Amino acid sequence: MNKIIFILFLLVYSSVSGQNISVDSNYTAAQLVQNVLVNSGCIQVSNVSVSGGNFGSSETSYGYFNANGSILPFTDGVLLTTGKLTSAVGPNSNFSDDGSGLGWNGDTDLNTALGLSNSYNATVLEFDFVPNTSQISFDYIFASEQYLSNPGSNQCNFTDGFAFLLKEASSSSYQNLAVIPGTNTPVKVNTVRGSGTICPPANEAYFDAFNSGNYPTTFDGQTKTLTAQANVTPGTLYHIKLVIADEGNARFDSGIFLKAGSFNSRKDLGPDRLLATGNPLCSGENFVVNAFENLATAYQWFENGTPITGATSATYTINHAGEYSVEIEINSNCTIFGSIKIEQAPALLINDDSYSLCDTDTDGKANFDLNAIKTSLFTNLPTGFQIDFFETTTSTTALPSNYSNTTPFTQTIYAKITNIQNCYVPFPVYLTVNVFNPQFPNENISICNSNNELLVAPAGFSSYSWNTTPVQNTPTITVNSSGTYIVTITNSNGCTTTKTFVVSSSEAPTITSIEVNDFEEELSATVNVQGNGNYQYALNGGAFQANPTFILNESGEYEIVVNDSNGCGTATASFYALSYPKYFTPNGDGYHDTWKIENLDKKGLENSRIYIFDRFGKLLKQILASGEGWNGYFNNQMMPSSDYWFVLELTNGKTIKGHFSLKR
C-alpha cells in the first residue's frame, strides 16, 4: 500500500480537530492505568510501568487518545502502538511506519504466548492489581496498517501480534486474554479479517472494516469491539502485561485501543439465553440467575433497566424474556455489574397436524412435501426455528423433504424443533393416503345429424369438472359435436379420477355414384358416398362390409345398401353390370341361339354398334345393340364352330373388344 505522508508539524502531543482522533503522550504510566483504564475502586492497582519506542525525542509509542467526536467506538482510552503515538492520528491517508532502525526490540513473553521468535518494536504496559470480585474484563479494538485493502498474494500472512498476559503475581506462566471469543486463537490480522480482498477471510463476525481516507485513525482496518475477560480470585495479587509488537519486521504499524474505564470487575451471569443461539428460556421454565460474590454487601436486580422491587438477593428467578442486570455493591468505593439477555421460546400452537394425499396406484403410499408441511404446521413459529421430521420420537436421522410413507395408508411422523435446546417434545404429524380408483370405463357415443346427446358421469361424488370451454361442473352435460370429453371426478377426500367419452358425429349417407368395371374378366363395382359417418356396405342383401368395392359374379342388376354404423340412416341404389356372352349355341333349342350383349339400354347405350369378325379378321356382321343379336350365319351360310371377335363401339365414346365361341 502506498500512502502520501504529509505532516505540517507535530508536537510532543498532538490534538487533531474535526473528525480525527487526538492523542496525548503527557500521561504517566500510573495515570494511564489508574485514571484512564481502571478508574474504579473495585481494583487496587500498583507497580505500574510502561515502555516503548526510543525516537530520540519526547515522542512515545503509547499514551491517551480521545475520539474527538469521530466515529471511533470508544470515547477515549489508552493507545499502545508499534510506531509513534502521533502517527496513529487520521485521516487514513496518513501512514504509520515509524519503527525501523531504532534498535527497538520485541518481547520474549509475547513471543512465548504467540509462538514467535521474531517480534520487534514492542510497547508494553503492565501493572499489578488486586480484584475485589471474581471476574475482570476490559474492552479493546485491534487496528493495523497491515489490513491492506489491495494486498498482493505474498502479503496475506503479514501480521503484527499482541497479547494481554495475566497471571497470579506468584506464578511464572501467563494466560493470554486477547483471543477470539470461545477459542484459544490469538487475535491477529490473519485470524480476524473481512472478505473483499484476495486474502481469505477469517472470523468475519469480529472484523469491523477496511478504512477509507476519511477514517479518524491512520490504520487501514480494525476489529470490532472485543472484550478480554478472566475469572480471578478476590483479594489475590495479579500481574497483567498488555503488549503489542511488530512481527517479522518493523514495517506497517499496529495499535491497541483500550476503552477508558473498561478495566473493571464485572459479574458473569452466564451466557445469554437467546433464540439465535438455541438456548432460550422455555415456556413455563424458571431460570435461577446467581450473582453471588463473597465480598458483596448488597444486591439490586433490574429488568430492562428498571429496578425490580424486592429483588435484593444474590439470586433472581427469571420466567419471561427481558434484559436483566444486577448491581453488586462490594463496598462504598466499589460497585460491579452483571447482565444477561433472556429470550423466551413460545408455546407453539398447532395449525394443522393432519395431511392427506391421494394414491395413484392403490399401494397406499404417496410422496409428501415435508417443506410445505413445515410452513403450515404451526400458527406462531418464530423466524429462524428449524423444523425437521423423523419417523420416530427417538430417531436422529431427519427425513428427506420429498418423503414417501413407509406404512401404507396411514403413518405418524414427528416434527422436532432441532435448533432449540430442550424446549419442545416431538410433535406428531399424521399422514393419510386415500385411495380412489373406481373402474370408470371409457364410452364411445355417436351423435346423429348434430342432434343433442347427454353425457352422464357416475353420480354421487363431491365435484365434477369437464374439459369444455367454458368448464362445466355438473354430473351431466349436453353435447352436439364430436370430440373427446373428459370429466374429472373428485370424491369427498379430494382424490380425483377421470372418465372419457369419445363422441363421434354421424349422418345418413348419400350415394353419389357407383363405379362399375364393365366387360372385364372380373367384374367389380365401387360405391361412392358423401356424408360424415362410419359407413358399411351390403350387396343384394348380403353381409355388410367396410369396403365399398364388390367383386361381381356376373353381369346384371344389383342393389347396394349403405348403412351408417352409428345408426344414423341408410341409402339404397341399383346398378347394372355389363358383360358379353362368352359363347352361344345356335342349334334351335331355344337356349343361347343368338349372341347378344344385354342391358346396354339400362345405361343409355342401346344405340351402340357391334362388329363381329372371324378369326381371320373378316367382318361377318354389323348389328345394333338394340337388335336381336347374331344368329351364327354369314351370307345365309351357317358358320362353323370356332372363336369369333367383336368390337363394341359405345355411344359414350368407349370401345370394347373381346371374343366369344360359337358351339354347335
TrEMBL record:
Keyword field: Signal
Residues in the signal sequence:
1-18
Q: Which InterPro entries does UniProt cross-reference here?
A: Choice_anch_L, Ig-like_fold, T9SS_type_B
So which domain of life are we looking at?
Bacteria
Q: What is this protein called?
A: T9SS type B sorting domain-containing protein
Q: Which organism is it from?
A: Flavobacterium indicum (strain DSM 17447 / CIP 109464 / GPTSA100-9)
